[in-house]
Amino acid sequence: MRIDKYLWCIRYFKTRTLATTACKKGHVRVNGEIVKPSREVYPQDKIELRKNQIQYKLTVNDIPESRVGAKLVDIYRIDTTPKEAFEAQELLKYARDYYRKKGVGRPTKKDRRDIDDFTDKNE
Predict the structure, then answer these.
(1) pTM (two decimals)
(2) Closest Cα partner for 74 from 86, 85, 58, 56?
(3) What would the DSSP string read from start to end of 9-55?
(4) Contact 37, 4 (CB under 8 A)
C-alpha cells in the first residue's frame, strides 16, 4: 500500500490529499528516509511523521484493506511516540495564549512592567 494511502487509512490525516502533501513536503520518513507519496509500506516498517509540531513515531503492524474505524487503528500500527512530544505541545499552547495578537496595539502599562520584571530576572 502507498504511504499516503496508509496514513489516511489509519486516520493520521483527514484526507488523502493532506497525506500526499505532507509526503511531498518531507514531513514523512520511512526507515529513516524521506519518502514520496507513492512509496510502498510493508509490515515492520518504521514511520516518522511530523504533524502539528509533533514528531510521531509508528511501526506498521499490518496493512488495512481500506480506511478503518478509530477503534481498529491499533491493529494496524504501534504508536511509539514519546510522551515528551505531547508535553512540549502543551507548553507551546500556553506560550501562544500569552502573546498579544498582531494589530492589538501598544503594550499596556502592566505588559511593560511584566517585560521589565522578566528582563531584570534574567540579568
Answers:
(1) 0.72
(2) 58
(3) HTTSSSSHHHHHHHHHTT-EEETTEE--TT-B--TT-EEEEEETTEE
(4) yes
